# Entry
Amino acid sequence: MSSIKVGLAVCGSFCTLTKTLETAKNLTDKGYEITPILSPIVQSTDTRFISAYDFRKKLEDICKNNSITTIVEAEPIGPKKMFDAIVICPCTGNTLAKLAYGITDTCVTMAVKAHIRNNRPAIVAVSTNDALSASAKNIGYLLNTKNYYFVPYKQDDPLTKERSIVADFSLVDQTVRCALEGKQLRPIIL
# Structure
């Protein structure tokens, strides 16, 4: 079996970037061919969790591919049918809204738009503090939109962040494999 080609689109849920690196390593260990796609905020923001340079270097070392970092670099994803699937991991509330409303103003949203046009799956690993408030309508919209599949998620800290959810990144592989068959991995809510 040939390897599964995945565009790994990374958005700025900075507290989950270490988990994103672990996910990339897990997928490459399973034979996936991964190309990173970095949102502008991930490319440029140093945080208490990791510097932008260190994150990019570690991710590119794991994936053995350079990152897509501009809209111009992301646009050919569709015409060239570069990926079997795109995984947005983590997917912030901001990116959820842009995807739901068709806003294409970053390399991540362009990558997804270009990829979806070929009726190929986009896998969403949501991580946002407002999932059960402002972002709920966008999650609902994408759950009901063709070619979008969600990595199962749960509240990450229901006592102190009652509206926050985060995907179980350990289920990305299973979600991709189901999505490639046109199925949503269930249960969606853990």
